[in-house]
Amino acid sequence: MAAHPSQLQQEIRQTRPFRSVGQEAVLGLFKTADMLRRHFGKIVGQGGEAVELTLQQYNVLRILRGAGAEGLPTLEIAARMVEQAPGITRLIDRLEAKGLVARERCLEDRRRVTCRISRAGLALLARLDDQINRSDEVFDGVVSAADLKRLVEVLDRMRSVLETK
Amino acid sequence: MAAHPSQLQQEIRQTRPFRSVGQEAVLGLFKTADMLRRHFGKIVGQGGEAVELTLQQYNVLRILRGAGAEGLPTLEIAARMVEQAPGITRLIDRLEAKGLVARERCLEDRRRVTCRISRAGLALLARLDDQINRSDEVFDGVVSAADLKRLVEVLDRMRSVLETK
DNA sequence: CGAGAATACTTGACTAATCAAGCAATAACC
DNA sequence: GGTTATTGCTTGATTAGTCAAGTATTCTCG
Q: How far is the CA of A49 from the C1' of D17 (A)?
């Protein structure tokens, strides 16, 4: 059974078959995520001039836009990131240097630093919204809504397993 | 419908619902891949001493083990990587420095550099095999083989879309 | 066979990620 | 109220990733 090589096998020019579906799923996940990262990275990384963002920086701005005027402390941002960011301080340093985020020490708890998105940050996000929203729907027509929903559920279960590891 | 927040929404502490299933799938993919990367990265990154690997370095070694004694030219390795690696030369530099890979100029075409895995490289992979194979099956019991297969297919379709972008 | 294009890397300069250690502010406990 | 622990970052050192430009070798075609 399954004598012909899978699509992924061809993509990475692998002659031997995968050891298991589990392995193929893991590698497929890596490769798909990598391509997606590059796709979205290209969008946020071409603001021209000095307003190029990395995906992580973009994620911070999105989180801060969602948080509104009261802002969020640094580590709360880290906790909300899609991808872990141990270097959150310097990540935000760079956003502050570009004038996209403002920081100030929190008065109630002086250990904390409250971060807020600036007007320039909001403007930049607004400029990117269209392209990003369109890209979020890049799979429409190729993968059905039902399949996407199943995908989301499977990914949820996968992360539950990984959380404990 | 869907009044309660999704698992992913809770994970990233997002109050607003996602704009679409497409968006949720993309973010879920990023987050799952990030967790998987860290999980596998921990395995290959703890060889102790000076034999710690990154996932990318590990991938190169796996490719070279598969290629056998005749080895592979540098850019052919790059083409076979699961995740793109523009810095392939220096990636292999580091493997060579650790004595895990040997390189030599190809005689038929002197532009090429043939890379081969060393005995030490093979030994290192052998030491990691068990843990990696077990991790490839980390989802067994949580995600059915049928679901994994569907996942693989959906990911294949996603990458087909992204290839042209 | 000789000029120009293409291939296969390599290098330099810069940016970003990672881990461990450190420091100041607050909380918890006796 | 004084010590200890915890929290919330910050910094330093190291490693890795990215893009553009450069070099050597081979290929193509008149």
A: 21
